[in-house]
Amino acid sequence: MKTALDIVVIVPLTIPTKDQYTVLYGKLLKSDATDFSFESCLKFLLMIADVIQRESGAVHGYTFVLDMEGVTMGHVARLTISTIRKFLHFLQEAMPVRLKGIHLTNVVPFIDKILMLIKPFMKKELLEILHLHSKPETLYPFVQKECLIKELGGNAGSLMEIQKTFNQHMVDNRDFLIQLEKVKADESKRPGKPKDSGAIFGMEGNFKKLDID
Prior knowledge:
This is Retinaldehyde-binding protein 1. Residues 1-160 form the CRAL-TRIO domain. GO terms for molecular function: phosphatidylinositol bisphosphate binding. With 213 residues, this protein is an alpha/beta fold. The protein has helices spanning 2-7, 38-56, 73-77, 81-94, 111-118, 124-128, 159-172, 174-181, 197-201; strands spanning 8-12, 22-28, 62-67, 99-105, 130-133. A 5-stranded mixed sheet has the order 1-2-3-4-5. Helix 2 links the parallel strand 2 and strand 3. The model has no long low-confidence stretch (mean pLDDT 86).
């Protein structure tokens, strides 16, 4: 978890949308891609979802707002097809909460290269909720200003304030997350052949198995 905290901020914003969807906001902390780990960022996102579910139960739905400010081609070069494929499979087939929207704001000029990597693994339904925004104003019809941080022109406080409070909250939940890592599905009881990532993707390994540090 510490690795992710050093390279990215991912926080649930304090006010839901008018449709009562929880907004998860993410942004890189460093434009230098040297220490960037896509797998660590995804793992951190899943930890956050686990903590939210533990404390709030099943939320009405998630809306992702991903701020691309600071993203470089160096970050893109560190993406792996296998991890992209696994994560998008999780979003579309296994995520316990409905995903209502994915909004990329402050999109970079090379967004087309990123889309070329991810589109082959996205179903029509996921593509339909993907929205690109070159400026925050076009985000407001989907995520109202009262829900957004002031850095995006919103009224829900500063990112620094929310980040400081929520990061400490995640640290306070460290023991819970460690215990959660020990919970495993007993694939021997699955009807038919047991499944793992190798059975689904033809490869071994899973970004959910990264260590909690």
